[in-house]
Every structure is written in structure tokens, then in C-alpha cells.
Design a protein that fits this description.
single chain; alpha+beta; Pseudouridine synthase; eleven-stranded mixed β-sheet
Length: about 240
Amino acid sequence: MIKVLYEDKYLIVVEKPVNILSETVSNTRRTMPDILKKMTGAYAVDTVHRLDKMVGGTMVYSKSRRATAGLSKMIRDHEMVKEYLAVIHGVMDEPKATLRDILFKDSKKNKSFVVKTLRKGAKEASLDYEMLATAKTEKGEFSLVKVRLHTGRTHQIRVQFASRQHPLVGDSKYGSPLKDEEIALWSYHLQFQHPVTGKPVDEVSFPKSTVFPFSCFMKTIREIEKQHRAEKETL
């Protein structure tokens, strides 16, 4: 069963499980829109932003044309707060910074690359990150980072960190030597103004405590969860 974080007649915010497609594709019914359509009885469920199949976490879906238009505009105008938790190999040089790159998507390889200049198929990408904790394990030294996206490019978080020699743990496509682990990326926080009612929507979800390598950082993750709960209670 999909965990519902917020729902009204216009939209639904849920925790997407790992290994389920976030958008509709023609050759399968095992996608989030199809599952949510059955769950809610909505006539249609629209995808307004995306997560890679192997990435889980907080997502918003529209159940009305009005909400679809409003949410899509928010995302285009960068008015929706989208924050992620990631575990990377090693330690970044700076504890917090903005990463800016030009990314080129190779559709044939389904892979993005950092390039030096804008050209056809290339787009600017930026994000803020903050290192939250580090851990030394038998599998290497890792860092838990909080990421706020400013743009939503294909594999953006994965390729921007990998290009700096700090791939996400488990992301063998972009250089992680740990090929048997899940990609350590989780969409934990969405915050936006409801496109119809105007009320604030602020929802979080967190990876399971048993999932490596997030399991190495559960004390820090629980502190984030506690902080969000306290902030929400004061609204």
C-alpha cells in the first residue's frame, strides 16, 4: 500500500516506493499514476514531476486539470521546494555550497554528462547542498548530504556529485563501486502553496532505518524528522 501524506480532491502527496515508475508508460500498469488512480478512484492522476524508478520518497500528483496547471507552473517557475537526502562516497571540500553545471543528456545511453558549454541538448543545472554527517564503515567513508534542487534535470543530483568524484552510494552508473546497493537518494521534503486553495502544503518522508547506507545516519535523520514535526505543529 502506498503511504498517503496529504490528499484532497485536487491533489495527493505520497511516499513513492523504490522500484516503481513515477510516470505512466505504455507497456506496464505498474506505475504510480495507475496505482494511485485505483487507490483514490480519481478519473485521472497526472505526473507533474519525476523521480527515477530506483529512487523513493515524497511526490505530489494531480487529480484535476486545475491542479495540474498550477503545479506545473510552480515547478517551471522554481516555486516548489524540493529537498533530498543523499549519501555520497567521501567528503565534499566545502560543508555547504551551490553546484552549477551544464548537463547534456544522452538519450541513447539514458545518461547525463557535465559539459563545458551550452549546446543542443544541454541545459544549465544548479542545486544547493549541505553536509549533515559523515561515517566511516567497512565499505568506505560516506557523507549524508541534504540537497535542494533549483532545476530538475535528468539524473541531476547523481551526475553533479559524481562529476566531483563523490558519486552516490550504490549508483554504479555514475561511478559507485558498490554495485549491489540501492542508490542512496531519497526525496524527503516537498513544500508549496496549494494551487487551488492557496494553503501551504509541507510534507516529508524518510528512508527506512534498515536500508544501507541511510542506516548509518539514522540519528541525524531522526533529528531532521523531529525538527520538521515541531515546525509543522507551530503553523
